[in-house]
Amino acid sequence: MLYSDFAQLVDEVFGRAYGRTLVREQVLPRLGDRTPAEALDAGTDPRDVWHALCDALDVPDAERWGTDRHRQAPPAR
Fold it and tell me: What InterPro entries has UniProt attached to this entry (predicted)?
């Protein structure tokens, strides 16, 4: 997953304003008690950050991939 894919999914799944707030402020234990932004800055794969964020917020698998129903869901690691 590219960083741009991550940003697009954040906007689609959570909404632009709320999603960007989550990326800046939501501390995720699975990412070493870092925010998604901190984890990305540290070089964590965007796919891993995406799954950690969705898991923490109980986003169902069917709703994780935004509005493009043909988008291939990258597998969780």
Answer: DUF3046
